[in-house]
Amino acid sequence: MSSDTILLEFDGPVAVMTNNRPDRHNAANNEMDARLWEILRELHERPDVRAVVWRGNGKSFSSGRDVAELGQREPGVSDLEFIEAGHAGTQGFFTLPVPIVVALKGWVIGGSFERALLCDMRIAAESAKMRLPEVLHGVVPDTGGTARLVQMAGHGLAADLALTGRVMDAEEALRHGVVSRVVRDAEVDDAALEIARQIAQAPPFTVKMFRRTLGGLVNPEVQRSIRDEAVTQSLVFTSHDYAEMKAARAEEREPKYRGN
């Protein structure tokens, strides 16, 4: 596994995670996922770390899953096992004892958008464009983002974004409470880092207890949703409609769905 896909640096007590596939708009692949889970495990063991910034090199935070490597997995691994392996790593967002501040810019798509939603704060650059395009590709969002969006902005926005796959810009995200601040592109990384530094100056046990309290209010529902999404996505992968969508696109024809 290459450590170059996500970089880990330290600014005093602040850890900085940097998505580092700028030529692919930081599109996520299996190697990048494994590196993210490795970093989260390391940060769990670092009592000197008091806050985390998550950012991206290049023009985008992350354009979602790398379609060039979509579906790659070890032989014999089932859909459910593959999805649940990713979800096991995702739990690190909930159990990390320090807050994560995410600096969003450019494209913020799909599972990468959902992972950003699992973090504590999101600071958006003016260029940030957020999407949940999974349904348009015949699958469902499966990383907890639906539940988190419902908590933040209600059923209507979650349905709108997921069912249409439309783009939500930074200002709309701010109105809905999906991000807490919007800044100029050139300032987004510094803004996130400054917030993390402020958090790091507070008593660490107090911050940990607040995050525990806040997490107790919202995380159980999101974690339950993630468990349900693993099963739902597995059923989608074996459905006639999913197979028909892929076949119709490959054959450049209209699909004939059966609703199962």
Description:
The longest helix is centred in the last third of the chain and has 34 residues, at 204-237. Helix 1 packs parallel to helix 2, helix 2 runs antiparallel to helix 8 (204-237) and helix 4 packs across helix 5 (155-164). The radius of gyration is 18 Å and the shape is globular. By secondary structure, the protein is of the alpha/beta class. It has a single domain (6-204), classed as 2-enoyl-CoA Hydratase, Chain A, domain 1 (Alpha-Beta Complex), CATH 3.90.226.10. The mean pLDDT is 95. Strands 1-2-3-4-6-9 form a 6-stranded mixed beta sheet, sandwiched between helices. A 3-stranded mixed beta sheet has the order 5-7-8. The chain starts with 5 loop residues before the first strand and ends in a 9-residue tail after the last helix. The chain is built from 9 helices and 9 strands. Helix content is 49%, strand content 15%.
Radius of gyration: 18 Å
- In CATH, the topology is named 2-enoyl-CoA Hydratase, Chain A, domain 1
Query: What's the CATH C level?
Result: Alpha Beta
Shape: globular
Helix and strand sequence: EEHEHEEHEEHHEHEHHH
Give a short synopsis of this structure:
This protein has 260 residues and is of the alpha/beta class. The protein has helices at residues 30-44, 79-95, 110-118, 145-153, 155-164, 170-176, 188-201, 204-237, 240-251, and strands at 6-11, 14-19, 51-56, 100-104, 107-109, 121-125, 129-131, 168-169, 181-183. It has a single domain, classed as 2-enoyl-CoA Hydratase, Chain A, domain 1, CATH 3.90.226.
